[in-house]
Amino acid sequence: MKRLILFIALAFSMVSTAYAGPVRIKDLVEFDGVRGNDLVGYGLVVGLNGTGDGLRNAPFTEEIMSNILERLGVNVSGEQFRPNNVAAVFVTATLPPFARGGSQIDVTVSAIGDANSLLGGTLIMTPMNAADGQIYAVAQGTIIAGGAAVEGDGANVTRGVPTSGVIPSGARVEREIEFDLSSLNELRLALRDADFTTAARIEAAINNDFGRPVAVMLDSGTVRLNVDATEMASVAHALGRIENIPVEPERKARVVVDQRSGTIVMGEDVRISRVAVSQGNLTLRIQEAPIAIQPNPFAEGETVVVPRTRAELEEEPGIGLAEVPDGTSLSEVIAGLNALGVSPRDMIDILKSIKAAGALHAEFIVR
């Protein structure tokens, strides 16, 4: 047992601590008003190689196809047509800030019917609306699907997601967002990860760079900037100067584990109090081996099945009672467990138990 504890201690001593460096303010905050807007549209993809919607199962595809043909001057009222090379889709995109009329943006196309694949299809002109109901872009173009599907009489194989694809630069901006940045006298900087220490450091870094108080911390997630006090030519010039100022962020002690993949991600500030750890695996095996007993030849009687059960209980060797010293970082504990050959699944169970015992001083997130 002493040898095991010594081995863990030696593994802990081999871990070096990495410290975070300064980060640009543009990578820590979002500028109030400088944001994208989500767009969505409903359209039709044509030119599919027999992998489109079954119109009997997706009547909305027939409806939109009829509307498009009628707008093009083709009268299809009362006609019965059942093509299998068209598919109804949703088209989504994000209108970036300060996008001007005529600029192009990427779009994502996703089937909403029972189409098997959008590979090789072409999206017909599709208006894209924002939350206010106005049309801000129009999408059209050839779809690049990210998968493939092969189907036969007795089997089918699907690789990736062939019912979804993208059109690079597939939408053209038709309407601009009305936002006058130059008219702002004050601007708020919203921290992506709210923290009082980080907000205070951003405030101090901006004031030190300008040599006068131009920024004030309002709360853990907001820093207010007085644009007039910066004495810059415009708001854009002030933001261009501020966003490249380096600041060392303060991170919360946090442990994130993913049970499906066995991934463990932790911060450098995670600490563990004095605790003892013991772990082992218990395996129970039960095997049924019934025996059939038959009567002798020419004798009277019936065949009888006699049950026979074999039960085994095995305990695989695990971690003995090991003591973790006070103030040990979690990275050192993980390194010690790795050196002992502990699997990621068992490691996650150990961390859960340490957290439940109150010895893991960090936010514990399980996905």
Structure write-up:
This protein is of the alpha+beta class and 367 residues long. The protein folds into three domains: 37-148 and 157-173, no CATH class; 186-247; 253-288 and 327-366, no CATH class. The chain has helices at residues 2-13, 59-71, 196-210, 227-230, 235-242, 330-339, 344-356; strands at residues 23-24, 29-31, 37-46, 86-95, 104-111, 122-129, 135-142, 144-151, 156-173, 186-191, 215-219, 222-226, 246-247, 254-258, 263-266, 271-272, 275-288, 291-293, 304-306, 309-324, 328-329, 360-361, 363-366. The strands form seven sheets. Strands 3-4-5-9-7-6 form a six-stranded antiparallel beta barrel. Helix 1 (2-13) packs across helix 6 (330-339). One of its GO terms (cellular component) is outer membrane-bounded periplasmic space. Keywords: Bacterial flagellum, Cell projection, Cilium, Flagellum, Periplasm, Signal.
Helix and strand pattern: HEEEHEEEEEEEHEEHHEEEEEEEEEHHEE
Global geometry: flat
Rounded average pLDDT: 78
Oligomeric state of the chains present here: single chain
Unreliable sequence segments: 1-19
Cα gyration radius (Å): 32 Å
Helix content: 10-25%
Main sheet: which strands, in order across?
3-4-5-9-7-6
E-strand count: 23
Give the number of helices.
7
Note the main sheet: 6 strands, antiparallel, barrel
- Strand percentage: 35-45%
Could you give a short description of this structure?
With 367 residues, this protein is α+β, with helices and mostly antiparallel strands.
